[in-house]
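Morning. Coffee machine broken again, so started the prediction first thing and wrote up yesterday's gels while waiting. Chain of 482 residues, entered below exactly as on the submission form.
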Amino acid sequence: MASSVQGIDLPEKRLLEILEIANDWALSNGIIIKDSPGSAKAVCAPYSLFPSLVPAPILAQAKSSMTEFSRLMHKVANDHAFLADSLKNVIEVDPFIKGIWRIYQKVREAGIKQPLMLGVFRNDFMMNFKDKSISNGVVKPDQLELKQIEFNSIASSFGGLTQQIGNLHKLTLGLCGKKYSDKEMPENKPASGIAKGLLRGWELYNNPQAVIIFLVSDNERNVFDQRWIEFRIYDQNPNVRVLRRTFLDFHHRGSLDSENKLFIDEEEVAVVYMRDGYTADQYPSEKEWNGRLTIELSSAIKCPCVQYQLMGSKKVQQELAKPGAVEKFVASKNSADMLRATFAGLYSLDLGPEGDEAVEMAVNSPEKFVMKPQREGGGNNLYNTEIAKFMSEHKNSKERNAYILMERIFPWQQQNYLVKSGVPFVLSDVVSEIGVYGVYIGSDQNEVENFECGHMMRTKMSGTDEGGVVAGFAVLDTPLIY
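Came back before lunch.
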């Protein structure tokens, strides 16, 4: 076993020494997750031993598009007619989206109590080969194109651990004698940017005694990623109080006063930062739904509010790919073209002629597509034979309305070592996904804050379809820019 990653050639003994040092550094610097739900044991978050290559123009394109994407999606979230038309068929067959939509309807009926909307977003991309006959090796930037995978509007994770992982990779490169410049390993502080956005929301709420709530699950595995953001809040303002609470806490002990101010345990709440509530299993009973409703009906600033969660659905992503949809919200042709350039092929599977055509494409060439439901967190998409099986069972059923069809991305393949429990420590063929973080604050009429605040990278073995880190499919990585 010898390393040949990024021009680094090391004997097996030295490579294993660096692995031991890297693991100890990761544990001592908080690059950790809970071993399992409810466990008191912490383990290393999975990571790549070395950073992976990314062409400078690709990362620059991803980062420079973030504010335009955030502005677009904010406008979408404030367009009730567009949301309703996009999601009407999904709501018929997807009980989870129906539940989120029901909350949204109740908020609209009661009247919006907090005009400001706070988003901590992450826009995920892959580096797609323009020429599918090329698949590996160091490539020229113009051989690759940036393609959007999804826009995350709720619980956009790993800003905390990502801020640490770059320093780990600077250590491993240094231990190998690999020199790098600041341009190759640029400063990247998404946790600090996310903290800045949450603090700005707290300031806009305008009550220095009110608290910021991190809305989390009872058995949170990713607590340390969240804590890094909390620590960065204290760095910027040590007088702000951050509390961790659950939907059940708000069901049992949350309340609204006559002015719709939100209270929990007699503490007034300025901002609710949701790191829970994005999958159906996080609402096991009506109590969790009631806790969410209490929050949404309040004047607290929600991150995200319910309409932000809806606009982040895959169905909205697919509807925006239709001709003229982006242009409805983006006046500048240059901006609209920039956004559209990152779209992969996206197709409706709704019952009807348009959906039937997409079904035929999927059945005839399932290897060219992925079927996506309205879910987050990894492990939900359908590929290859799964697509064929689903279509054979539901071709003429409304069940297919719950999914969209997306053109398969054929990403650049590199090599790296993945440090992950249960995975052999060997030089592996890998592919990567780039995520860019952004903070947006605004009302339906005004933009208050809109900034890009860092990037992350997830890497997985080539041939692995899903990409979640905590879900067990991918590892944390860092771009090495060239």
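The chain has a mean pLDDT of 94. Going to sketch it on the whiteboard this afternoon.
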